[in-house]
Specification:
mainly alpha; 3-stranded antiparallel sheet; 7 strands; 5% strand
Length: 391
């Protein structure tokens, strides 16, 4: 990560220089153009013409010098990246056709998640890969709602939560309550200029809606907001409840909305491409070091899909393989890891044996029944509810 910090510093210098020149260069050139346009050619004052031309040349030279300084910083960033992040040729690996298809699908999925539907469709057409129309339309709608949320428009998100209320309740989601809470607190912002009677009407309408949706999730959440009614005639600034104005932000709403929208689609909230890219950046320096050591002793890089090191990402740790905690065997494409509804993961062979013979850690028998118990917790579930995990 020291390398990334070094590149960040060089990139920050470049961006600071670019921002300082962005307006200055345009302003300098505009002044030079104005001087040339204001020359009195009819009177043919040679001195004034030469003065204006000299000033223009000086301005152009100044802009040229600034451009050279900027170009030097750009080149320095490129050299730093090439020096520290460009692995040797023998570290690079060939991508087979199946991996290339998976990569293109991941890029398309990422583009759709970001709302760039036209780019995703073009890539899918050129790469000859299918696009899930229902999933694509869902992500496109979610991207528009998220953009509206960032601009402070809650209506599209409230309409979406209203249309999907039952499904969100099954997920124990509180996004609808959070949206109404944000609207409620917006009436106590210093920038709120509503008429007092109209403001009071909207405040109590928000309380009514919050009461309806919080009754199904967490009724206690509305209690901390009731004290705000003491200051209904003004704002919450310089009050004991001022912390509420900064605690619940629009960005927090966007994150909650994106997470729950992906859960409704039965998809991960984070982009698989972004997760893989970040994990790869973290593990690549270690892999390069291991490759160098293997090359020094005359060894050969193992020809399999297993990483020699684990990749940490945020507060999570990703592994390239899983060893079943029940059978003590490594999972494989023929015996993949299966996630139970309680969150525990075992191999498919272990799942089949538990479902068939009915013996868990506690020794309880439940053979030939449609239900089984997780070997690590008392949750009962059907074996068909288990889902395969793809590493």
């Amino acid at each position: 990560m020291d390398v990334c910090s070094l590149i960040d510093k060089e990139l920050e210098k470049l961006l600071n220089k670019l921002s300082s020149l962005e307006g200055n260069v345009v302003q300098t050139l505009d002044k030079a153009i104005d001087k040339l346009e204001n020359i009195d050619y009819e009177s043919y004052n040679e001195k004034s013409i030469l003065t204006a031309l000299d000033s223009t040349v000086s301005s152009a030279q100044k802009v040229g010098q600034q451009h050279r300084e900027l170009h030097a910083l750009v080149s320095k960033v490129g050299r730093t990246i090439d020096k520290h992040l460009n692995p040797p040729d023998d570290i690079m690996c060939e991508i087979d056709s199946a991996s290339r298809v998976m990569l293109n699908c991941s890029v398309c999925d990422h583009l759709v998640r970001q709302g760039h539907l036209d780019v995703a469709e073009t890539l899918a057409l050129e790469a000859c890969i299918p696009l899930d129309g229902e999933e694509t339309d869902g992500f496109y709608e979610h991207a528009k709602i998220a953009a509206a949320l960032r601009d402070g428009d809650l209506e599209p998100a409230l309409q979406w939560t209203s249309n999907n209320r039952l499904a969100l309740l099954e997920l124990n989601s509180d996004i609808e309550f959070c949206l109404h809470r944000h609207r409620f607190l917006s009436y106590f912002q210093p920038t709120c200029e509503l008429d007092p009677s109209k403001k009071r009407e909207l405040v109590f309408e928000s309380i009514r809606l919050m009461g309806i949706v919080s009754a199904n999730t967490a009724p206690y959440k509305i209690e901390e907001l009731m004290g705000c009614l003491l200051y209904i005639g003004g704002s919450l600034v310089d009050t004991p409840y001022s912390y509420l104005l900064s605690m619940y932000t629009l960005e927090d709403l966007v994150i909650r909305f994106s997470r729950d929208a992906c859960r409704l689609l039965d998809l991960p909230s984070e982009s698989p491409l972004a997760v893989c890219f970040t994990a790869g950046c973290r593990v690549l320096p270690s892999m390069v070091s291991i490759q160098k050591m293997i090359r020094q002793v005359g060894g050969q890089w193992p020809n399999n899909e297993e990483l020699p090191v684990e990749a940490s990402y945020s507060c999570r740790v990703y592994h390239s393989t899983l060893t079943c905690p029940i059978l003590r065997q490594r999972t494989s494409p023929l015996n993949p890891p299966m996630r139970l509804i309680c969150g525990h993961v075992i191999s498919r062979d272990a799942l089949n044996k538990i479902a068939t013979h009915g013996t868990g850690i506690s020794g309880a028998l439940f053979s030939h029944t449609p239900k089984m118990k997780c070997p690590y917790c008392p949750v009962e579930q059907s074996p068909k509810d288990a889902r395969m995990i793809i590493f």
